[in-house]
Design brief:
The protein is an alpha/beta fold. It is built from six helices and twelve strands. The protein has one domain: HUPs (Rossmann fold), CATH 3.40.50. It is 27% helix and 23% strand. The strands form three sheets. The protein has a seven-stranded parallel β-sheet, sandwiched between helices. A three-stranded antiparallel β-sheet has the order 8-9-10, with no helix packed on it. A two-stranded antiparallel ribbon has the order 2-3. A hairpin with a 3-residue loop joins strand 8 and strand 9. The longest helix is centred in the N-terminal third of the chain and has 16 residues. It binds flavin-adenine dinucleotide (FAD).
């Protein structure tokens, strides 16, 4: 079984995060880069299966700036078998469609029985890359799974929605995205970090994958403007001096809530 996990480097969720008002891109220098936590969970899901099924290969694939090597190595230190890093300045600012095209080509190069991804990245937050990748690979997709069972020829899990929980299944090869309900990624060990240095790590550009970013530039979306979110307004605090109930009701009425 070969499981490909899509991993993305993102600015630290707990650090300061800023968008460049000139390019609309994340200011990557503003906070420490990390492996997206949701993707750590996807790596964990693959490794948990590999632990119980010796011979399973777990390959991680990332499209990220050249500086992301350490982040990708973290997935190898967790236990992944190999890594493919797509680096190309022409992919800077890639939109969702181009990203999916590049990732699908990278997955084809690696080969796969199952692709695992996060359902939504912490920075871009598009939430559609896994579905697009599935379409391009002509593989069934199970998105937003909160549980996962993998067998030799199928994958299944629970998909929770506002209305209830669906039990879904697909034959392999398939593409799956998981939610934060899945277990957290394991810690890396010193042994794992040392072993990661010797694991296969391939670096390719868009041309190696047969993708020409510039050819399709006009068909892609263009950012027209970007603005910072306005600072939060201070809320209204009601201190109880015997009349808090009345003041709260008056406040809600004035806001049109009640
Ligand atoms: C040179 C360079 C610079 C870049 N600069 C930026 C930047 O400034 N800001 C930014 O947001 N993105 C940047 N990217 C990455 C790329 O543009 C985004 O990954 C893409 O737009 C995906 O959008 P999303 O995160 O909203 O996807 P979502 O659909 O929210 O992602 C869902 C899941 O898809 C998978 N996935 C998504 N993107 C990638 C990826 N790149 N590699 C592997 N798996 C992935 C992950 O499993 C993720 O959890 C850069 C890439 C390169 C090569």
């Amino acid at each position: 079984m070969k499981i490909v996990v899509l991993i993305k480097e993102v600015p630290d969720t707990w650090g300061e995060r800023r968008l460049s008002l000139e390019t609309g891109l994340v200011e990557r220098a503003a906070s420490a880069p990390v492996l997206d936590e949701i993707d750590e969970r996807a790596v964990e899901a693959a490794l948990a299966f590999a632990d119980a099924h010796p011979g399973t290969e777990v390959a991680v694939v990332a499209m990220a700036p050249a500086s992301a090597v350490a982040t990708i190595r973290k997935a190898l230190a967790m236990g992944a078998t190999s890594a493919l890093h797509v680096v190309d300045d022409a992919l800077r600012g890639a939109d969702l469609l181009l990203t999916a095209e590049v990732l699908a080509a990278a997955i084809r190069r690696v080969g796969f029985d199952l692709v695992l991804a996060g359902n939504l990245s912490t920075d871009g937050g598009g939430g559609v890359v896994p579905a697009m990748v599935a379409e391009m690979l002509d593989a069934p997709q199970l998105t937003g799974l909160s549980t996962l069972e993998i067998t030799d020829d199928a994958v299944s899990g629970d998909r929770v929605s506002d209305a209830g929980t669906m039990r879904v299944s697909a034959p392999l090869p398939a593409v799956v995205s998981i939610t934060e309900a899945m277990p957290e990624g394991r810690f890396t060990t010193f042994k794992g970090i040392m072993a990661a240095k010797k694991k296969p790590f391939e670096t390719v550009d868009a041309g190696d994958l047969g993708v020409a970013p510039e050819d399709a530039a006009t068909a892609r979306y263009i950012m027209l403007s970007v603005a910072e979110r306005p600072p939060r307004q201070a809320g209204t605090k009601i201190v109880d001096e015997g009349d808090a109930g009345e003041r709260l009701a008056a406040f809600l009425l004035a806001e049109g809530v009640a």
